[in-house]
TrEMBL record:
Membrane-spanning intervals of the chain: none
Name by which UniProt lists this protein: Lactoylglutathione lyase
UniProt cross-references to Gene3D superfamilies, sorted A to Z: 2,3-Dihydroxybiphenyl 1,2-Dioxygenase, domain 1
Species in which this protein is naturally found: Liquorilactobacillus satsumensis DSM 16230 = JCM 12392
Signal sequence annotation: none
InterPro entries listed in its UniProt record: Fosfomycin_Res_Enzymes, Glyas_Bleomycin-R_OHBP_Dase, VOC_core
Keywords on record: Lyase
Length: 139
């Protein structure tokens, strides 16, 4: 990509989490195992994952004093993270693992078209109940 093509791309996103160990287990499973990310930075209070060469995600432990409010995706702020995949088979594999890992699938009765008749996707939650969407593109 040229500099002009990279202008405006998302560089990184930082998310505060209630339990860094639980979040790391979840995001390692999804990002490293299924979506081609790598560990980027690791420190006592956080971890980041990079999808080279352009963007990365950061998860930081929230201070204990600030945990009481909790996360609500329907309030002002982040609603969900959506990731593109090239094939539906990857979505099927991720879905099969969700139950055995005790992660909460959303809209299961309408899978895989909860987002509409032409939108093949899987929706689930991370340990802080942040909605994650995996959507098949190009098929």
């Amino acid at each position: 990509m040229t500099n002009l093509e990279t202008t405006g791309l998302l560089n990184h996103l930082e998310i505060n989490v209630s339990n860094l160990a639980a979040s790391r287990k979840f995001w390692d499973w999804l990002l490293l195992k299924h979506l081609g990310y790598q560990h980027y930075q690791v420190w006592e209070q956080g971890i980041s994952y990079i999808k080279k060469p352009y963007s990365y995600l950061v998860f930081v432990q929230t201070d204990a004093q600030k945990l009481s409010a909790g996360y609500r995706r329907t309030h002002v702020g982040l609603n969900h993270l959506a990731f593109s995949v090239a094939d539906k088979q990857l979505i099927t594999r991720i879905k099969k693992e969700l139950g055995s890992l005790n992660y909460n699938e959303l809209y299961a009765a309408r899978y895989p078209y909860a987002g509409g008749k032409k939108h093949y996707a899987l929706y689930f939650e991370d340990p802080d109940r942040i909605k994650v969407e995996i959507v098949a593109i190009g098929e």
